């Protein structure tokens, strides 16, 4: 890649299926990658696997749903590594159920983890990005923020909310050297998708014109592109990457 002095990349929810591949790809690209995680137990095993493959991300714990925790994490990163040049808001969870069965708790945790987290992380990284007149913010949304998916009122609301957030923040910081974009993956072969009942998943795959799930590397490739300095004129955009499942 054509590398610059802007080398520090933070990936939230790094230990998940999409996050893992993003971390590897950004390390391969030559960035100093910070892997954010929530659960120390999972992160410890994950880091061992990464190291066995020759990858050395820096590890920083914070629940991205918590504004104060994110603030403390960003402060430590800035002191120990430097200003965050690239932020990938990737952390996300599902708590699927039909709306009539959906609990206030599952609404709350999905909105806080998937959408409030984007505010929390952006709000803490934005001033240093403005000061250095450079930044790349990449928000990982979903095809299900663009279309209906039975059982995902909470998830769809959070993922759709990211679009309004991205477009508005993009225009607010467009003159500050910062780009803000959304990626909307379709169904990708991750644990999150594999958790969907097999018969339901088979039905979903039938509805994907390419007839297959996406690969985590395909999303990481797009992250790498949007993170690059050459992507400077792309902002407020949404990149759908869903095998043709939703075209509009
Ligand atoms: N369309 C229409 N009706 C449906 C339906 C569908 N897709 N699925 C279920 N129903 C019906 C049921 O038949 C049932 O009807 P009756 O009451 O008349 O019997 C009613 O809706 C309610 O059913 P249940 O509450 O019992 O729901 P369920 O247990 O059958 O299934 C569910 C609910 C768990 C949400 C299931 O539909 C499901 O897993 N759906 C897939 C959700 C999904 O795609 N999640 C994506 C996870 S991966 C991800 O999110 C990553 C990403 O970004 C893409």
Helix fraction bin: 40-55%
CATH architect. name: 3-Layer(aba) Sandwich
Average pLDDT works out at: 97
Indicate the CATH class.
Alpha Beta
Q: Strand share of the residues?
A: 5-15%
Structural class: alpha/beta
**What separation lies between the terminal Cα atoms?**
32 Å
The overall number of domains is: 1
Question: Would you mind describing this structure in some detail?
Answer:
- The protein is α/β, with parallel strands linked by helices.
- It has a single domain, classed as 3-Layer(aba) Sandwich (Rossmann fold).
- The protein is built from 8 helices and 7 strands; from the N terminus they run βαβαβαβαβαβαααβ.
- The chain has helices at 17-28, 40-52, 67-80, 104-132, 153-172, 191-194, 198-206, 216-227, and strands at 8-11, 32-37, 58-61, 86-89, 135-140, 178-185, 238-241.
- Strands 3-2-1-4-5-6-7 form a 7-stranded parallel sheet, with helices on both faces.
- Helix 1 packs across helix 8 (216-227), helix 3 (67-80) runs parallel beside helix 4 (104-132) and helix 4 (104-132) runs parallel beside helix 5 (153-172).
- The longest helix has 29 residues, at 104-132.
């Amino acid at each position: 890649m054509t590398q610059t002095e802007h080398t520090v990349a933070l990936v939230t929810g790094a230990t998940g299926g999409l996050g893992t591949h993003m971390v590897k790809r950004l390390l391969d690209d030559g960035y100093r990658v910070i892997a954010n995680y929530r659960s120390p137990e999972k992160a410890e095993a994950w880091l061992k696997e990464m190291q066995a493959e020759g990858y050395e991300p820096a590890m920083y714990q914070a629940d991205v749903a918590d504004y104060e925790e994110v603030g403390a994490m960003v402060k430590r990163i800035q002191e120990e590594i430097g200003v965050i040049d690239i932020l990938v808001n990737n952390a996300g969870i599902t708590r699927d159920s039909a709306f009539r069965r959906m609990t206030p708790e599952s609404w709350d945790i999905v909105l806080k983890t998937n959408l409030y987290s984007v505010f929390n992380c952006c709000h803490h990284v934005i001033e240093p990005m403005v000061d250095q007149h450079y930044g790349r913010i990449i928000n990982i949304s979903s095809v299900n923020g663009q279309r209906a998916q039975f059982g995902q009122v909470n998830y769809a609301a959070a993922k759709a909310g990211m679009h309004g957030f991205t477009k508005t923040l993009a225009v607010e910081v467009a003159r500050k050297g910062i780009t803000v974009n959304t990626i909307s993956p379709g169904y990708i072969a991750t644990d999150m998708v594999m958790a969907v009942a097999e018969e339901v998943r088979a039905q979903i795959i039938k509805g994907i014109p390419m007839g297959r799930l996406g690969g985590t590397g395909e999303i990481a490739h797009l992250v790498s592109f949007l993170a690059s300095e050459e992507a400077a004129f792309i902002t407020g955009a949404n990149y759908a990457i869903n095998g043709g499942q939703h075209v509009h």
